[in-house]
């Protein structure tokens, strides 16, 4: 089945977007602490992704924002008001989950208007609001179809229309695209970004997909073991990770042995490289340097004119405008990935040299 994703046309805006926040939020399940004093603050109209591996606490944080989970301690704020004790149906928040949760016995029209019915909105206003919401997600004319007659991407757009039709102050999305195939997922995330930007609606988007998070966010909160390791723009998260975990989880990094040279540099195979954040490392301490594939330079053996590592090509993959080449180093014996121009072709067995560019790196023990 084909998928059409039109650019949404302007529609009446929802309620004024709200600033939302978690302040020192702790969540315990019995003896287990899932969130450790989490602070998270979103500006009105901002789209923030909670990114992290399974079990890091990102969905629990979202559920605390929604009111689906009571916080053990701390506060949940909407427009500066503490709503920690207010039930989910009183928080004026739209939600979209990984499971589409459409009512199978209802048409698209009935599914989308369900929240308006619960609010006892008149039939004429319901019809107008539903038409606006379906147009917004590119599903005008689908009113009389049932969920079984829709593709996965269409069902998720119905779920999005249902969340937006009440004109909520904030939108929460919990891995809404993970069940879709790759092409539809990319196109739908772009549409979601366009919609929330047009509406100016404050949005929290939970995902474990780093590419997804970097592509659509104003800011990203990288979570690990119930804590936020870094909260910044996608560019800063990728270029200047503040911890070894962030450097290792977001994007691809080579782990190279290093030695702290001074309070701003690390020696990596004899090359002095700036450090993004030193942390608790001491001068002379052995560390691991996390080096991005694009921050390495690869040349054929004999072409190098500076400090470099000798190696042999294991494989080289074509990525469109780029190539990623895997090299087995002679000393130390390890494998590293190098990203370079697609026109620079290397074959398995080619002898090469690899040097580290002077770009700031993260370091860890």
TrEMBL record:
Residues 20-250 form the ABC transporter domain. Pfam families: ABC_tran, TOBE_2. The keyword Nucleotide-binding applies. This is ABC transporter ATP-binding protein. InterPro entries: AAA+_ATPase, ABC_SmlMolc_Importer, ABC_transporter-like_ATP-bd, ABC_transporter-like_CS, Mo/tungstate-bd_C_term_dom, P-loop_NTPase, Transp-assoc_OB_typ2. Keywords: ATP-binding, Nucleotide-binding, Transport. GO terms for molecular function: ATP binding.
């Amino acid at each position: 089945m084909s998928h059409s994703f039109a650019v949404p046309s302007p529609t009446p805006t929802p309620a004024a977007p709200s600033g939302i926040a978690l302040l020192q939020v702790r969540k315990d399940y019995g003896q287990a602490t899932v969130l450790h004093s989490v602070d998270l603050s979103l500006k009105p109209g901002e789209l923030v992704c909670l990114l992290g591996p399974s079990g890091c606490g990102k969905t629990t944080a979202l559920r605390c924002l929604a009111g689906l989970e009571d916080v053990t301690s701390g506060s949940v704020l909407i427009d500066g008001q503490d709503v920690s004790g207010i039930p989910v149906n009183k928080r004026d928040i739209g939600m979209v989950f990984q499971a589409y949760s459409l009512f199978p016995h209802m048409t698209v029209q009935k599914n989308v208007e369900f929240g308006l019915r619960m609010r006892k909105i008149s039939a004429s206003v319901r019809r107008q609001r539903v038409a606006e919401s379906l147009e917004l997600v590119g599903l005008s004319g689908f009113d009389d179809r049932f969920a079984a007659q829709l593709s996965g991407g269409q069902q998720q757009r119905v779920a999005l229309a249902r969340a937006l039709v009440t004109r909520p102050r904030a939108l929460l999305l919990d891995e809404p695209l993970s069940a879709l195939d790759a092409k539809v997922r990319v196109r739908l995330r772009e549409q979601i970004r366009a919609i929330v930007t047009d509406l100016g609606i404050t949005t929290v988007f939970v995902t474990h997909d780093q590419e997804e998070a970097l592509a659509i966010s104003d800011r990203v909160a990288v979570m690990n073991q119930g804590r936020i390791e870094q909260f910044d723009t996608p560019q800063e998260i990728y270029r200047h990770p503040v911890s070894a975990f962030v450097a290792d989880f977001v994007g691809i990094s080579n782990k190279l042995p290093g030695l702290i040279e001074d309070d701003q540099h690390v020696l990596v195979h004899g090359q002095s490289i700036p450090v993004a954040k030193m942390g608790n490392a001491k001068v002379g301490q052995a560390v691991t340097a996390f080096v991005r594939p694009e921050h390495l330079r690869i040349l054929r053996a004999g072409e190098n004119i500076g400090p470099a590592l000798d190696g042999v090509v294991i494989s080289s993959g074509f990525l469109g405008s780029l190539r990623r080449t895997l090299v087995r180093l002679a000393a130390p014996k390890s494998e590293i990935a190098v990203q370079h121009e697609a026109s620079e072709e290397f074959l398995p067995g080619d002898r090469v040299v690899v040097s580290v560019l002077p770009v700031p790196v993260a370091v860890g023990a």
